[in-house]
Structures are given as C-alpha cells and as structure tokens.
Amino acid sequence: xxxxxxxxxxxxxxxxxxxxxxxxxxxxxxxxxxxxxxxxxxxxxxxxxxxxxxxxxxxxxxxxxxxxxxxxxxxxxxxxxxxxxxxxxxxxxxxxxxxxxxxxxxxxxxxxxxxxxxxxxxxxxxxxxxxxxxxxxxxxxxxxxxxxxxxxxxxxxxxxxxxxxxxxxxxxxxxxx
Length: 177
Ligand SMILES: [Fe+2]
Ligand SMILES: [Fe+2]
Fold this sequence. Notes:
Four Helix Bundle (Hemerythrin (Met), subunit A)
C-alpha cells in the first residue's frame, strides 16, 4: 500500500471507501437480506461518523484558521456551516434507518422496512454526492502548500489519520492492522 502523504488524498480515499460501503448496503437490501443489510448499514454509519468526526475536529478548524484574515474567509465559513448541516442530516437519517432496521428483528415487516430504509439511504447518498464534491473541490484543496505551511499540513494529516483509525469498539476487528 502506498503511504498517503496528503490530507486531501487521505479524505478522498475515505470518500471512495464509504461509497463502497454504502453500495454493499444497497446490495444487501436488493437481496432482501435484512441481517446483512443491518450489519452493512451499521458499519457504513460508523465509518461515516468517523469521517465526519475527522472533518469536524481536525479539518474544518484548520481550514478556518488558515482562511482567517483572507478575503475568502466569509465564503469559506458559510461553506463549512453548510457542510456541517449536511453532516447532521446524514447522521440523523442514518440513525432513523438503523432504528427502523432494529425493529425488524423484533416485529418483522421486513420487506416494508427495507423499502423505507432504501428510501432513507437514497436521500443520504444523493446529498452526500454533492457534499463530497464540494469538499473535494473547494475545501480539501485548502490543505495544500499554498494555504498551510509544511508543519501545519503534517500535523493536520497526522490528526486526521488518528481520527480515521479510531474505530468504535464493536468494529475494532475491522480496523486496519
Ligand atoms: Fe463532510
Ligand atoms: Fe468528507
């Protein structure tokens, strides 16, 4: 595996991984495999939560700091606020989908629930596509040499990687060694 040396590469790679995880969830829904759909959905939810945490705690403050005093500061602040609202939407909708799936195992209604969950997930994916594109084209680009000095960029990369390595306990067995 080549070592990822830039913040934008690290987060773009994570977007690509998340795309695979959500595709797996759709496959399980199509196969009407409720148990696997739940597991895949739960893992996607957890991994997206880790990604969002890395952006909130590490990336966004660094970008905000780098933009302070520049002419673009207000525009960047507004964009970050919009991205934060998207994050809240993703987590709320996925929590709803998880809750619906949990009820299946107690009360049945499998086919109906999978349809509802597919709808919730489609809403998330639609918005996530636009969200990720904005991040990749307009926010991750602000972590390059023109904006952060080498030390700050290295520190940011280390902290982002640390967040992306913090798997929840129930998924520790899936964390890369
Ligand atoms: Fe994001
Ligand atoms: Fe992102």
